[in-house]
Amino acid sequence: MIATATTTTPTTIDAACVQYAGAEVTIATSGPGTVFVTATVHINFDHVAAEGDYVRLFLSPTSGSCATDEWRVRWSMPSNAPAGTYYETFLIQEPFNVAAAGTYTYYVNGDMVGGTGGADSVVGAALTAIFYAT
User: Fold this and answer.
1) CA-based angle 44:47:51, to the nearest 5?
2) What are phi and psi of 88, to 5 degrees?
3) Four-CA torsion 122, 2, 71, 86, nearest 10 degrees
4) pLDDT in tens, 66-107
5) pTM value?
6) Alpha helices in the chain (DSSP H)
7) Quick one: which of 8, 59, 89, 90 has the fewest CB in 10 Å?
8) What CATH code would you report for 2-133?
9) Using CA atoms, how far apart are residues 63 and 93, in angstroms rounded to an integer?
10) CA distance 8 to 118
């Protein structure tokens, strides 16, 4: 089984962990197994000179959860980078075990650990979930 979803709803990135609006995919499984989720996330950084930017992105079965794991994506821009608008694309992927048949939803969540207060925002995302039965 495969499920896909896309969104172009802008969501501001700030210090608080949030789910990016519409960045979620739902898949129905036929039994126990693994759901492998990938997401491509497009972010617009409004970089301010002399301030570093540091963003974290996560996949999670819980909306608004930024529980740190080694599947997360971390990215930083040094404070000495020229001021300006930067567009970056990130790939996140993570396997999730499911114990039984059901409907499961996975979310793209994230936060800005540094460089908050600008016009930084997620401007789009595309997600794919693939179920592998065991």
Assistant:
1) 140
2) -125, 150
3) -20
4) 998 899 999 988 888 888 888 999 999 999 999 999 999 999
5) 0.92
6) none
7) 89
8) 2.60.120.760
9) 16
10) 20
